[in-house]
Amino acid sequence: MAPAPTLAERLDAAPSDSLSVADIATATGLSESTVRRLAKEPGWPADASGDHREQRYPREAVAAWMRDNQGTRVNPEELPGADDDRVTLTEVANRTGRLRETVSRMPSTYRNSADPFPTADPLGTYSWGEVKAWLGRRSSRTGPRGTVQPPAAAAEAATQPVLDKLTTAMIERLTGKSKEAVKTLVRRPEIAELSTAKVGRLRVWSADTLLPLLWQLGYLPASGPLGTEQRAVLVELGYLPATGKPTAEQRAVLREFGYDEQGSVEHRAWLRGPHRTATELAKYYGVSISAISKRIARAQEAGQPVPHPADTEDGTRYDPRAFDAFWNPPAAD
Questions:
Q1: Cα 208–214–220 angle (5° rounding)?
Q2: Whole-prediction pTM value?
Q3: How far is it, in rounded angstroms, from Cα 29 to Cα 23?
Q4: N or C end of the chain: which has fewer CB within 10 A?
Q5: Please, which residues have CB within 8 angstroms of residue 212's CB and are 6 or more apart in sequence?
Q6: What is the C-alpha separation between 57 and 63, in angstroms, rounded?
Q7: Which CATH fold would you assign to the domain 72-158?
Q8: Under the phi-then-psi rule, with left for phi > 0, alpha for psi from -120 to 50, and beta for the rest, what region is 303?
Q9: pLDDT (tens digit, 9 = 90+) per residue, 6-63?
Q10: Contacts of 109 by beta carbon, 8 Å cutoff, 6+ apart
């Protein structure tokens, strides 16, 4: 018997390249209410109708979303692994063939649902049996399942060490700071309040909430090469591959966190731009002028190189490229 077509494949029978909710429901066999609910999930294509009377979605974009999300709704009993396995969200993505970004949003997306995503333990791992059961219940509520198998690469990725939590030891490796300095760092209110739990005396943080803050606070470089330890930690967390180039999804997640190896187009334009005043620098980097002055003073006291201002007809200004190298120095390996 031929395998049943996936939801994405069923869209081939849709009447046009621009689909209404009713069109998608008719082609896939899902109910219209289910399609409307799916349209609220992360990553669903944007309404391309330009008409408030009826939302319409590009068929290819919907099919791609179905392949990444709905198309992998196989029988949970066919998924690999034992029910008593403890798995991270990255491992859930690998075992089911879904995008990691999609899976990482499930706990928050369904937090207030009548059937919320299973609860993680203090180290951020989940019962694989509970996750499979939850996926099975959701599959039964979202119409016919496809038969797409997880990608071949997922089996290899699942064998790699992947975590979803940061410990103080990992923060030391990311920031290059000493144990005592990190103890002081994690007492900062905005960091302390993000700590999710303790395992014994070990404090842990959710990686996808603390990493963006570390980038925002300037403890990680916004662009350019990462240090060896920084890269190693991001590999352990699943945000970078052990070898080769990062995937488009990994690059997108890191950009959301605040890191772009090549820098954004806007940032590159800023670096090529004219000399800037301290006020302009403070606004661009999201800090106060006092913060810039204090950081320069600390660097001078430590005998570190600092950007030297140039006296121009318009006043004292800094070379943006030299200042950025000072503000976001490449991490030492």
A1: 115
A2: 0.41
A3: 10
A4: N
A5: 256, 257, 258
A6: 10
A7: Multidrug-efflux Transporter Regulator; Chain: A; Domain 2 (1.10.1660)
A8: left
A9: 677 777 777 788 888 888 888 877 777 778 877 877 678 887 765 556 788 888 888 8
A10: 41, 42, 117
**Which pLDDT belongs to residue 318?**
93
Burial of 220-240, coded b for 16+ CB within 10 Å and e otherwise, reads bbbbbebbebbbbbbbbbbbb
- Provide the CB-side half-sphere exposure for 78 (13 A, CA): 12
Q: Among 50-59, 280-289, 301-310, which stretch is predicted with the lowest mean pLDDT?
A: 50-59
Q: Which two tokens stand for residue 31?
A: 């109910």
Residues 6 or more apart in contact with residue 271 via CB below 8 angstroms: 263, 320, 321, 324
CB-CB contact of 205 with 196 (8 Å):
yes
**Residue type at 63 in one-letter notation:** A
Confidence of residue 155 (pLDDT cuts 50, 70, 90): very low
For domain 266-327, give the fold.
Answer: Arc Repressor Mutant, subunit A (1.10.10)
Residue spans per domain, the chain: 7-68, 72-158, 165-262, 266-327
Tokens of 99: 């995008």
Q: Let me know how long the chain is.
A: 333
Asked whether the domain spanning 266-327 has the same topology as the one spanning 72-158, the reply is: no
